[in-house]
Write a structure and sequence with these properties.
CATH class of the largest domain: Mainly Alpha
CATH architecture of the largest domain: Orthogonal Bundle
Number of helices: 14
Number of strands: 2
Strand content: under 5%
Helix content: 40-55%
CATH superfamily of the largest domain: Intergrase catalytic core
Largest sheet: 2 strands, antiparallel
Structural class: mainly alpha
Strand order of the largest sheet: 1-2
Distance between the termini: 72 Å
Length: about 300
């Protein structure tokens, strides 16, 4: 029987996520944070309460704590963020049960519905405004244009984009492979326009760094194939935000908005949901189904044909 020390159990759970579930470092970091908050709350609020004696009443107190907890900006946590903490706790309890600990059954902890969020995406005209707002007279601008074109062309996650190397991208076949969330491999296809910009950017580059996208600020470091020159995910997020402002788009678009735009563009033009699921790298079709209510052409045609307000 493994130790009942809560922090030790949390460490074992995180090891399980890394080794057996093949979760990303980012996911493990988030789960560590959520569970450390729970552990600290439990030890300071109910020091005599063990994880084995956790009950619904205690979970309810913890949820009241989360509802009143402030983030780093001093704002109370959104309902969806509170749910992340509870989801982490339920996953942890499920792990403990799997390892023969007598703990609260996680299915007894309900998750209230979070506030519905509208799905933000750009139409083709807005994407064109975004990409043409980039000044490509310099190499850095060529990089930025290529990034935005590639994000819309492929629906890549930002973490997948920044990991790309020159050697991965086959411009002749206009495709490359990536390892996405949960270690799932998929083939990614590049549009003609994005392929053209990758080629232009590569031809403009005079360095021998391996990363497809590099930074242009700070000290040039030439060791380890230029790994320290690789552009970060945070930098890509700032780049997209910069051009969203310059293009004066009506949508406060982010990197993930371009992923949404990729999916809605495909579905609006007749692609089937299963194919889009594969291209996005979604494990479950239910994740991809968030797009269907805004891209179902048949429903739009029925509405236009039969609603009296259209006569």
């Amino acid at each position: 029987m493994i130790s009942s020390n809560l922090n030790e159990l949390i460490d074992q759970f995180l090891e399980y996520l890394e080794i057996e579930k093949n979760c990303s470092k980012l996911t493990i970091r988030d789960y560590r944070h959520y569970l450390e908050v729970f552990s600290n709350w439990l030890s300071s609020t109910l020091p005599n309460k063990s994880i084995e004696s956790l009950d619904i009443a205690t979970v309810r107190k913890y949820r009241v704590f989360l509802a009143n907890r402030a983030d780093e900006k001093g704002l109370t946590l959104k309902r969806i963020t509170q749910n992340y903490y509870v989801i982490a706790l339920r996953s942890f309890l499920r792990f403990l049960i799997k390892n023969d600990h007598k703990v609260l059954e996680p299915s007894k902890i309900d998750l209230p519905k979070a506030e519905s969020r509208s799905l933000k995406f750009l139409d083709r005209d807005q994407v064109d405004r975004l990409v043409t707002s980039v000044d490509t007279s310099k190499e850095e601008g060529m990089r930025d244009r290529t990034i935005v074109e590639l994000l819309f062309s492929t629906g890549l996650r930002v973490s997948e984009l920044v990991r790309l190397n020159h050697s991965q991208v086959n411009l002749e076949r206009k495709e490359f492979g990536v390892i996405g969330k949960g270690g799932r491999a998929r083939l990614v296809f590049i549009s003609d326009r994005a392929s053209d910009w990758i080629k232009r950017y590569q031809e403009a580059r005079k360095d021998r760094f391996s990363p497809l996208f590099i930074r242009y600020s700070g000290k040039i470091i030439e060791d380890n194939n230029g790994e320290k020159m690789r552009l970060t995910a945070r930098s890509v997020e700032r780049i997209v935000k910069k051009y969203v402002r310059l293009a004066r788009l009506p949508v406060d678009a982010t990197v993930h908005t371009l992923r949404h735009s990729f999916a809605t563009d495909l579905l609006s033009n007749g692609a089937d949901l299963r194919s889009v699921q594969e291209m996005l790298g979604h494990k479950n079709i239910s994740t991809t189904q968030i797009y269907t209510h805004i891209t179902n052409k048949q429903l739009r045609e029925v509405h236009e044909a039969f609603h009296s307000g259209n006569k």
